[in-house]
C-alpha cells in the first residue's frame, strides 16, 4: 500500500521541528529554502522559496517526497529531480490547498511516471 503523499514517511526523522529556513536538496542539487511548512497529519507540505532559480520563485512540495531531514545541517532531501519540481503545476500562495484542482494536479504530477515511495534507480 502506498504512503500518503501529503504526510511525512514513517522513515523520516521529522521531530515536529520548525523547518523554516532549511535548505531543500533535490536528487540533483539544491532547489531553495523552506519558507513555510505544514505538519498536519494528512496535509503536510513544504513551501520552498527557490530564490529565483525556478520561474514563479516558490514551489509546493508534498511532505511525502521528503526522504530525509538532517537537522544538524538544516537540510531536507526529496526524491525528485530539479526538472521534475520545475515542471510541477504553478503554486499560488494564498489559495487553499484542500479539495482543489491544484492539489490534485500536484499529486498527479509527482506520482506520474514513478510509483510513490519508490526512489529512482
TrEMBL record:
It comes from the Bacteria. One of its GO terms (cellular component) is plasma membrane light-harvesting complex. One of its GO terms (biological process) is photosynthesis, light reaction. InterPro entries: Bac_photo_RC_H_C, PRC_barrel-like_sf. This is PRC domain containing protein. It comes from Streptomyces venezuelae.
Amino acid at each position: 500500500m502506498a504512503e500518503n503523499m501529503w504526510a511525512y514517511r514513517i522513515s523520516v526523522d521529522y521531530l515536529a521541528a520548525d523547518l523554516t529556513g532549511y535548505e531543500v536538496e533535490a536528487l540533483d542539487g539544491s532547489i531553495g529554502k523552506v519558507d513555510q511548512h505544514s505538519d498536519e497529519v494528512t496535509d503536510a507540505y513544504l513551501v520552498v522559496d527557490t530564490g529565483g532559480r525556478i520561474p514563479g520563485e516558490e514551489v509546493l512540495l508534498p511532505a511525502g517526497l521528503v526522504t530525509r531531514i538532517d537537522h544538524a545541517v538544516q537540510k531536507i532531501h526529496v526524491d525528485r529531480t530539479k526538472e521534475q519540481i520545475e515542471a510541477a503545476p504553478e503554486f499560488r500562495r494564498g489559495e487553499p490547498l484542500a479539495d482543489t484542482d491544484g492539489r490534485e494536479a500536484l499529486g498527479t504530477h509527482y506520482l506520474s511516471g514513478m510509483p510513490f515511495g519508490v526512489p529512482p534507480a
